[in-house]
Amino acid sequence: MRKRSPKPFSKRDSKRVSKRVPKPASTGKSPAQPKGEIEAIVADIKKFRDARDWKQYHDPKNLAICLNVEAAELLEVFLWKSHEEINRERLEEELADVLYAALLLADGYGLDVGGIVRAKLKKNALKYPVRKAKGSRKKYDEL
């Protein structure tokens, strides 16, 4: 029997997606260890959200939609502009909104952000070995 993440979004949501969302690989990190930067940021986001009673709107579907909308707003910062013309303040704000949604989504499923990013880097290292991919923009199946 697979362990479920602590307090997922809701019982209904966790039953619906538990078969599709694989449990992340263990990072060896015990719950008693002090919080890292990512965990502290997530705690700040949740405090902000909870003070406004917005958790009710932060189910997986809405957070995924929010992530996509915020990513589109991030793209808008670059639309029709050169690198030098970018408004850095807007860039920071839109990127923060993207991270806000992504971190809440990961937290809702009890995912270890550092662990899943490192696991993906390992997969990508196999798909894009340095000797073949260095300096190339080709996709892994074209190398």
Question: Could you characterize the architecture of this molecule?
Answer:
The chain has 143 residues and is mainly alpha-helical. The chain contains six helices and no strands. It has helices at residues 11-17, 37-51, 60-78, 88-108, 113-127, 130-133. Helix 2 (37-51) crosses helix 4 and helix 3 (60-78) packs antiparallel against helix 4. 6% of the residues are buried.
| Helix percentage | 55-70%
Mean pLDDT: 83
Report the order of strands and helices: HHHHHH
Content of β-strand = under 5%
Give the helix tally: 6
Q: What form results from the Cα inertia axes? A: globular
Structural class: mainly alpha
Classified in CATH, the superfamily of the domain at 36-129 is MazG-like
The counted number of beta strands is 0
Largest sheet data:
none
How is the topology of this model organized?
Blueprint: H1 11-17, H2 37-51, H3 60-78, H4 88-108, H5 113-127, H6 130-133
Helix pairs in contact: 2-4, 3-4
Task: Give structural attributes.
disordered N terminus, mainly alpha, 0% strand, Helix Hairpins, 57% helix, single chain, 6 helices, 143 residues
Brief sketch in words of this structure:
By secondary structure, the chain is mainly alpha-helical.
